[in-house]
Amino acid sequence: MYYNDNTFIFLNGEIVKASEAKTDLYGQTLHYGYGVFEGIRSYKTSEGKTKIFKEVAHFDRLKNSADALNLPYNWDNDDLIKATYEILKLNDLQDAYIRPLVYAPANMSFVRNSESFIAIEAWEMKPFLGDELLSVMTSSFERPNPKGFKIEAKATGHYVNSILASQEAKAKGYDEALLKDMKGFVAEAPGANFFVEKNNVLYTPQAGNILPGITRATILEICNRLGIHTVEKNITLAEVHGADSAFFCGTAAEVIGIASLDKILFRKEWKDSLGRVIQKEYKNLVTEKQKQQKLETVS
Ligand code: PMP
């Protein structure tokens, strides 16, 4: 599903075949969930080129995540971005999901390592949460407590929480979960951020108890440009139930509308919501359609 005998990955400075790459079963990342990663997307632009969306922001976050966890990180953004484009080309990928992973060496103790390793894998991307409106449940799991985890880091171990929440939602017949933080405020999905619309304003949980996503930041920029009023604040469940509309956003999920939370329908039809406006703008941005349209208007 992710690779075949002809798939190439980047591994510690070299391009190698995925099927021949090895890892260490004594590794600290595998045993303790002590590693960091990124989720990045490339798109076939409207001009037919391959473009990685916000690649610098993603590789910066990878380094920040590694620093937050005391994982040695000695790679250069430019080299990693170049290597990523190379594996996209070698694997003949344009619309792809790209997964860099920084992992620790063999180490069964908790002491700091003197080196880390990096792998960059890529595979063809299908919509992560599909493209139908979602039926969402409030999870019985809370997001990790920021006093126990470096919550802004995209750390492998944090995703045990995401997996449990997502599996619980699916087992109960929902498409996805919405998790609260330890104070009971609405936080985020297992792998995406959350926005809710009320009276023509878009609200999103403030940073602190969430992974402040790159897509979330992009949406705040889009809203600013379009004159859509946004507010980052603590949001209660009561404020979300029966609001006008809501959506999840993330690199993999992009912008995906939510039909209901805990079976309570959002009031607006998705086609009339602010989320739908943002969804279209986001797609134009990642595929550079606006840039293309501007060029056409000029010429
Ligand atoms: N929250 C969580 C827990 C995530 O895993 C993700 C996906 N990386 C996001 C939010 C969205 O982040 P981004 O927009 O940077 O992909």
What overall form do the CA principal axes indicate? globular
CATH architecture label of the largest domain: Alpha-Beta Barrel
SSE ordering: EEHEEEHHEEEHEEEEHEHEEEHH
Count of alpha and pi helical runs: 8
Number of domains: 2
Strand content: 25-35%
Question: What is the structure about, briefly put?
Answer:
The protein is an alpha+beta fold. 29% of the residues lie in helices and 28% in strands. The model has no long low-confidence stretch (mean pLDDT 95).
For this entry, give a set of tags:
299 residues, alpha+beta, D-amino Acid Aminotransferase, Chain A, domain 1, D-amino Acid Aminotransferase, Chain A, domain 2, 2 domains, nine-stranded mixed β-sheet, 29% helix, binds 4'-deoxy-4'-aminopyridoxal-5'-phosphate
Description:
It is a single chain. With 299 residues, this protein is α+β, with helices and mostly antiparallel strands. The protein folds into two domains: 8-123, D-amino Acid Aminotransferase, Chain A, domain 1 (2-Layer Sandwich); 134-286, D-amino Acid Aminotransferase, Chain A, domain 2 (Alpha-Beta Barrel). It contains eight helices and 16 strands. It has helices at residues 28-32, 55-68, 77-90, 159-171, 214-226, 237-240, 274-286, 289-298; strands at 8-11, 14-17, 36-37, 40-44, 50-52, 96-103, 117-124, 134-142, 176-180, 186-188, 193-198, 201-205, 229-233, 245-250, 254-261, 264-265. Strands 8, 9, 10, 11, 12, 13, 14, 15 and 16 form a nine-stranded mixed beta sheet that branches. Strands 1, 2, 3, 4, 5, 6 and 7 form a seven-stranded antiparallel beta sheet that branches. The N and C termini lie far apart (43 Å). The structure holds 4'-deoxy-4'-aminopyridoxal-5'-phosphate.
